[in-house]
Write a structure and sequence with these properties.
There is one protein chain. The protein is an alpha+beta fold. The chain folds into three domains: 165 residues, Immunoglobulin-like (Sandwich), CATH 2.60.40; 116 residues, Immunoglobulin-like; 129 residues. 15% of the residues lie in helices and 48% in strands. The protein is globular and about 75 Å long.
Length: 470
């Protein structure tokens, strides 16, 4: 065989090998996908529906097209595999990523599909300050979905904050106003390997503290609530935002009206619900509800009939009631390490009966708590929070069942929280202090106690998926 012929055969074999390799890379991977490990979808819409059906936290941003393209590409394994951060979304307290890796022939033999993780969240606050918080990472429970030879998965990253801490709320407010998030300690796990990859950083679109969250969808309403006083409240439109829903009204409400009570009706099941009254910076009055958005997402793409009703108005008393916690009782509790029981009626107004029940010791630790019992005549009121005053509150117009505490010098104490519980069917409120109950006489004042009045006529509103997206 001549040299020319040998050279021709060699070149032909080499070209054939290259073409076969390219075929394997483009078509072979699709043909070799193990159907027991991977589920193949045909389009992005199919992928979004599949992910949100298994990972409910994704349903909201996917339903309202809130995910933004990321277009971040990171080579893995010496550029033999590529990680792509496809889309991202965050609402201030959660950050979601949809990512993908290209499928390789060996995936069918791996014991676990590729999974992204991070151990720390670095947030840039609106004042430029950076804080590092441990990250809680949850990947979608599925083994991933394959679309066009790429394996897609989703994850949600949540900053790990101890809500029980006394400074938790100010920190949460700062986090919601963050302008940038950086994921640190990022790893990609596949098979038995963990590969460290570069840090990932993304811009956020925060809402300023105290500002109205952006409307992302709405539909018109034309309903009227008739109060016992003869006043009418017109409901203009339902607005959906990233963490809930609100109803816009046509007027400023009386200062003693703090909310409304009603029901969510779905599949012949009625669930009590509450609408909180608040005003934005322009003076527009809204009724905010935490349940409507959940039910709205559940009816997307279905023929289920859901409605929400208004039955009662919630008001707050204009009176305030005070009682004393004696320093001698506090000293007795500390020295003898025993409870000091009381049964003192503080007030009985509008069906509210408030009792001071005494002091509860803390098993040898110099802490202790103050216990109150609140009985409300109408069970519809449920368990509304007793809110301690906060330095970032603007006024007290909408603070219900409010508690203030003064020491013997008249100075207000702020480092306390209130824990709500039910004992023998009765609503209990326990006051916990950061450094134990202060010694000496204390004056506790309770104001803005809530009560309800029925509307002249209950008002029902159908909940429909005819949202206009913004």
């Amino acid at each position: 065989m001549g040299k020319t012929k040998k050279l021709f055969i060699g070149i032909s074999l080499f070209i054939g090998f290259i073409l076969y390799t390219k075929y394997e890379e483009t078509m072979g991977s699709t043909m070799r996908i193990d159907p027991e490990m991977f589920e193949v979808v045909e389009s992005w819409d199919d992928l979004a529906e599949a992910e949100s059906s298994l990972f409910p936290d994704l349903k909201f941003p996917l339903s309202f097209d809130l995910f933004e393209d990321s277009n971040i590409t990171i080579p893995l394994e010496g550029k033999q595999r590529v990680l792509k951060i496809e889309k991202r979304w965050g609402d201030g307290t959660r950050f979601c990523l949809i990512y993908s890796v290209d499928i390789k022939r060996r995936d069918k033999d791996e014991q676990s599909v590729p999974s992204l993780s991070a151990d720390t969240v670095r947030l840039t606050l609106d004042d430029g300050q950076e804080i590092d918080i441990p990250a809680v990472v949850e990947n979608s429970p599925s083994e991933g979905f394959v679309l066009k030879n790429r394996l897609y998965r989703s994850m949600i990253i949540t900053p790990e904050i101890e809500i029980e801490k006394f400074d938790a709320q100010p920190l949460l407010d700062k986090i919601k106003a963050s302008s940038r998030i950086e994921l640190k300690g990022v790893t990609m796990a596949y098979g038995s390997e963990n590969k460290h990859i570069q840090q990932l950083a993304f811009k956020l679109h925060p809402n300023k503290p105290g500002s109205l969250p952006d409307t992302i969808g709405k539909y018109s309403m034309d309903k009227e609530l008739s109060l016992q006083t003869g006043n009418q409240v017109r409901l203009q439109q339902l607005e959906v935002f990233e963490t809930g829903a609100r109803i816009k009204t046509d007027q400023k409400l009386d200062s003693d009206i703090i909310g409304f009570i009603g029901e969510i009706n779905e599949k012949n099941v009625s669930t009590p619900t509450y609408y909180r009254v608040f005003e934005d910076e322009k003076g527009t009055t809204y009724l905010e509800n935490n349940s409507i958005l959940h039910h709205l997402l559940n009816i997307e793409g279905t023929e289920d009939r859901v409605s929400f009703t208004f039955t009662h108005v919630v008001k707050k008393s204009k009176n305030a009631y005070s009682f004393s916690v004696l320093g001698d009782d506090i000293e007795t509790m500390y020295q003898q390490n025993k409870d000091v029981l009381k049964e003192e009626l503080v007030t009985n107004e509008h069906g509210n009966r408030l009792f001071y029940k005494g002091l509860v010791s803390a098993d040898g630790v110099k802490q202790g708590t103050i216990k109150l019992q609140l009985e409300k005549e109408d069970d519809l009121l449920g368990s509304y929070s007793m809110l301690q005053p906060s330095s970032n509150e603007e006024g007290t117009n909408h603070m219900n069942d409010k508690i203030t505490i003064q020491d013997r010098s008249g100075k207000y104490i702020e480092d306390f929280i209130i824990v709500h519980d039910v004992e023998e069917g009765k609503e209990m409120k326990t006051i916990h202090f950061a450094n134990g109950i202060p010694e000496g006489d204390l004056k506790i004042t309770v104001s803005n106690l809530t009560y309800i009045e029925p509307l002249k006529i209950p008002v029902e509103n159908p909940l429909e998926w005819n949202i206009t997206h913004h």
